[in-house]
Amino acid sequence: MAKLELDAMDVVQYDVLKEIGNIGAGNATTALATMLQVKVDMKVPKVALLDFQELPEILGGAENIIVGILLTLSGNIDGMMMFVLERDAAHSMVNMLMGQDVPLDAEFSEMEASALQEIGNIITGAYLSSLSNLTQMSINASIPYIAIDMAGAILSVPAIEFGKIGDKALLIQTEFGEKDTQVNGFFILIPTLDSYNAILTSLGL
Amino acid sequence: MGNMIKVGMADMNYCHAPDAITTLGLGSCVGVVLYDPNTKIAGLVHIMLPDSTKIKNNENCAKFADTGIDEMVKRVVEAGASRAALKSKIAGGAQMFAFSSENDLLRVGARNVEAVKEKLAQLRIPILAEDTGNSYGRTIEFYPETGELLIKAVGKSTYKI
Question: Partner of B141 for a Cys bridge, out of A66, A198, B22, B147, CB 3.0 to 4.6 A?
């Protein structure tokens, strides 16, 4: 098996990781659409190796306010999974789910934050179970944790984990919905380097 | 008004008044300002981890509290600051997600703050002000002209320390 090197990934490894994003996020997007009973489109996943400085740019810049739902992963795959929403989108999704009409720029109530955690829980669950089926690896996810804050601050959490092994972070990112529509956001899977190798090995690479 | 110099994650830089220096969206990382009030030279390092000796891949000195502060001291002194006059202000080290506290990985904010304080004490650089901990992100701007550190957080009005 070719060991994954962050700076020298080959095309096949790259494509496989992209496909994982495709399958995982495909299932998650379906779960989301079912839950909200709306149509949700999904973009082609991106596999990106980013310097820490570039990391907040994928979410609209370091000071962009986002809703981040994070789960830590253990078992055969270690790392983190994040589900990220713009503040407006988070509000409109909670409004849909709870049948209410709260203004999009309002603070999130405790009830709304917990609804968001539950949305995160269900759809990251769909992502991870498809990944688990595909690789035949067991993945244990923590409970979902939520933070509503600046993108840079939220991303510091996975960045620090990657900081322990290098100066770059490798992530599989999938955008769903259209910008400025009611339902849009990102799934970001951030396995550790060892877990990337384990995933690739399980798929016969 | 001078320019605003940006410092990214795991990065460092310095400026002379009337320029100012900033880092955006500090989460569990810690922003350490070192400045000389007389020459009005200020350095800012955005550290991510407490200890370079525990990590194999540690070439980027700005990433760690120990090596980052050492390097920052060296650079501001080279730029004309007096080593003996150096003061510091620190901010950041939040716990962004309300994890159960026994999970060591997630207390990294608090550990970063401890490591920064330890290093500054060892170098005998006084900490004139700090805004650390809690659970929210911070954008900080330091003005060497006045020695003020401006802190912006989501849903809070801007304040100075």
Answer: B22
Residue B86 has pLDDT above 80, yes or no: yes
Find the catalytic residue in B7, B21, B26, B29: B29
Task: Provide the number of structural domains found in chain A.
Answer: 1
Those residues whose C-beta lies under 8 Å from the C-beta of residue A13, and which sit 6 or more positions away, are A2, A4, A200, A205
Total CB pairs under 8 A between chain A and B: 105
Q: Determine the Cα–Cα distance for residues A179 and A55; give it in Å rounded to an integer.
A: 19
Cα separation, B49 vs B105, whole angstroms: 11
Q: Where is average pLDDT lowest: A71-75, B28-32, B113-117?
A: A71-75
Active site residue B29: yes
Q: Does A145 have pLDDT greater than 80?
A: yes
In terms of residue numbers, what domain contains A34?
11-202
CATH number of B4-160: 3.30.1330.200
Q: Is residue A189 part of a domain?
A: yes
pLDDT category at A1 given cuts 50, 70, 90 is very low
Percent of chain A predicted with pLDDT > 90: 3
| Distances A203 to A22, A168, A200, B5, B88 between C-alpha atoms, Å | 15, 24, 5, 46, 51
Whether residue A5 is contained in a domain is answered as no
Q: Where are the domains of chain B?
A: 4-160
Smallest Cβ–Cβ distance between B154 and the set A149, A160, A164 belongs to A149
Q: What is the pLDDT of residue B14?
A: 94
Shortest CA gap B85–chain A (Å): 31
